[in-house]
Design a protein that fits this description.
The complex is a heterodimer. Chain A is mainly alpha-helical. Chain A contains 14 helices and five strands. Chain B is α/β, with parallel strands linked by helices. Chain B is built from 15 helices and five strands. Classes of the chains: A mainly alpha, B alpha/beta.
């Protein structure tokens, strides 16, 4: 029976790194035949039915406690904790979609994390992490501070209980679709320049070019007042569209399609999670008091 | 409770290397008698443990061995071809493994002086393996992988295991490979040849200095492959202490006196054990390991059977040789002369 022992070289798990990715890197650093370890883990899992045996193997090899992976998964994905057993299965299942750690933080290695929406730019190295794409598509963000400010704003927005991953993805798609007909004046030009640049990759360079504006829209949608006054149940849809028009008055150009698409996305998102939204709004009211009748204007997220 | 791991694993080797044996406190007899009873017993236990396994004597052989290994490590380049070996040959219980442990400790200490955080960097300067009985080439490679704690797998081919062993040694920047109990290898015949060839290929590719140790290696290593190993390094014989000449006898007496000092007995006259030097040589065959065992036993008997705490602590003939005394272990004098005389009469 193969037993695992503590290895001579310990490597630190990266932020939100999955156990599979960590095991690959650990085996690589210590010249361990990775398929041998995975085969042993798979066999043990088949014999016992325990989903977390991968964590035990990692603990034996490197000393990382099994709870580390559960905590990292919870922080990254923010799952609904109604079924602990199912969540355990998710933590130790090889993820279908992977995001990659900044390759400069890892010294050129590839390290995978869970598919999360916590951050998009590595602030230490100024790297666009290209969500949904491989590590080879990571880009250096433009030198302007606006991208870094947008990233800081995005990290706050990502913590909001009102934004879901499907809604964030939908907003990304809508902004990308409407970018050519929208102002600010430099938006379309920026997108066109990105498309003309050598090595343009759709979904990577275009998203990077539109990132500050996308974050500004997401920041507006993440506000409790928006959901309470405009999107909550029994609210008038016209009121929602009027609110959207007021919320995005900073954006010149033809934005009627954008507003319509966002309104539909919000209504769809509301329908799929009425109870959770109620809980989130009530929690917000308990903490901050009732929301104002009129939603205040959005604080400017500078694009200059 | 200490976590006991075998010495042919990295954790076990470092556990032994790092372990500092605590010397018993140097008490006077009055201080000892003033101790409460449990503390007195604890002090006795500490003295027995120190004598039985704590202190290490640096003999001339140890110094020479360390000088050789150091010189090879300093002068050999991992990128150059042609391995450097030291073959340590000797009978059982003359202190071969103890010497290897001291060499391993010395090399680790040298590495720590040059790279203080070498363990954090994953550097393993010394690899220590023990050859299992009738080892095959796969078992040799697996022994190296086991030392590092790298899972070997049962179904992998010999080539994969050997490559993996070399990769690990290079990745961990191992400079010294110690192969103990080499006599366990089947040193003649094709199986033994294969195992030695595998070992040679690992050493060649990893570019490390190697120390082989075993019993009667010069007599048993008869194959061409084994001769190649013997020819590429130096052969060091570790023999029991002799009593053939006056100089040999005085070296042995010096060793007995050193052991006596480490006993830390209150009433033992310095040099008191020297009167038993010749019988002790006859009893132990001049083997340092046997001498330690015999004297440890004597010390344990003396301390355990003290009638009162203030009874004199002296090692007597009965403690060392039992009721029969020292004469029982000495060769009967005149036997050869009697034989010759008898032959002459005939």
């Amino acid at each position: 029976m193969t037993t695992f022992h503590r290895q001579a070289l310990y490597i630190r798990p990266h932020h939100y790194e999955t156990p599979h990715s960590y095991l690959d890197r650990l085996c690589d650093a210590n010249a361990i035949h990775t398929p041998l370890v995975t085969a042993v883990v798979k066999k043990r899992r088949a014999e016992t039915g325990h989903k977390h045996l991968l964590a035990h193997a990692i603990r034996d090899l490197a000393g990382v406690e099994p709870m580390h992976w559960v905590k990292a998964y919870t922080r990254a994905v923010n799952p609904i904790m109604d079924d602990a057993n199912r969540m355990l299965g998710e933590v130790f299942r090889k993820p279908r979609d992977t995001r990659w750690v900044c390759t400069r933080c890892t010294g050129g290695q590839t390290a995978g994390t869970w598919e999360h929406h916590q951050f998009t730019i590595c602030l230490r190295h100024g790297r666009w992490l290209a969500p949904g794409h491989g590590p080879e598509h990571q880009r250096q963000v433009p030198g302007e501070a606006v991208w870094l400010r947008a990233e800081r704003a995005y990290r706050q927005v990502a913590r909001s209980p009102f934004l879901t991953r499907p809604l964030v993805d939908e907003v990304w798609r809508i902004v990308r679709d409407q970018a050519t007909v929208l102002g600010p004046p430099d938006l379309a030009a920026r997108l066109a320049a990105a498309e003309k640049a050598q090595g343009f990759k759709e979904g990577v360079d275009d998203r990077l070019a539109l990132y500050p504006e996308t974050v500004r829209i997401l920041a507006w949608l993440a506000r409790a007042e928006v959901w309470d006054r405009l999107v909550g149940p029994h609210r008038n849809q016209e009121r929602l569209r009027a609110g959207l028009r007021r919320g995005f008055d900073w954006m010149p150009g033809d934005k009627s399609v954008l507003e319509e698409a966002l309104a539909e996305a919000l209504i769809r998102s509301r329908r799929s999670r009425l109870t959770q939204l109620d809980e989130a709004i009530h929690a917000h009211i308990r903490k901050h008091g009732p929301t104002p009748r009129r939603i205040p204007a959005m604080r400017q997220v500078s694009t200059r | 409770m200490e976590d006991l791991t075998p010495k042919n694993t990295l954790a076990g080797l470092r556990h032994r290397i790092d372990r500092e044996h605590v010397q018993p406190a140097p008490l006077s007899k009055d201080e000892y008698l003033a101790l409460p009873e449990p503390d007195r017993y604890a002090h006795d236990d500490a003295r027995i443990e120190w004598f039985g396994s704590g202190f290490l004597l640096t003999t001339g052989d140890t110094v020479e061995m360390m000088r050789s290994v150091n010189a090879y490590l300093r002068t050999s380049n991992p990128l150059s071809v042609g391995e450097r070996n030291v073959v340590l040959d000797g009978p059982a219980n003359v202190g071969k493994t103890t010497m290897l442990m001291r060499v391993a400790r010395e090399v680790e200490m040298q590495t720590s002086r040059r790279t203080p955080d070498y363990r954090k960097q994953g550097i393993v300067p010394v690899c220590y393996i023990e050859v299992a009985p009738k080892s095959t080439p796969k078992m040799i490679a697996a022994a190296i992988l086991d030392f590092y704690g790298v899972p070997a797998g049962e179904r992998r081919t010999q080539r994969e295991l050997v490559n993996n062993a070399v990769t690990v040694m290079l990745a961990r920047r191992t400079r010294l490979l110690i192969v103990d109990e080499l006599q366990m290898l089947r040193l003649q015949g094709s199986a033994g040849d294969d195992a030695i060839d595998t070992l040679k290929s690992i050493i060649n590719n990893a570019g490390c200095v190697t120390v082989f140790a075993g019993i009667d290696l010069t007599a048993k290593m008869a194959s061409r492959s084994a001769e190649q190993i013997m020819a590429r390094g130096e052969l060091r014989h570790l023999l029991p202490f002799s009593s053939a000449s006056d100089a040999d006898r005085s070296r042995w007496a010096g060793l007995v006196a050193s052991f006596e000092r480490q006993m830390r007995l209150f009433d033992q006259t310095p040099g008191g054990l020297l009167e038993f030097a010749d019988p002790l040589h006859a009893l132990t065959g001049g083997r340092i390991g046997d001498l330690r065992r015999v004297l440890s036993r004597a010390m344990s008997i003396m301390l355990d059977e003290k009638p009162t705490p203030d009874a004199p602590e002296v090692i007597t003939e009965a403690h060392v040789f039992g009721a029969a005394g020292a004469q029982a272990v000495l060769p009967q004098p005149g036997t050869a002369q009697r034989k010759k005389a008898a032959e002459g009469i005939a």
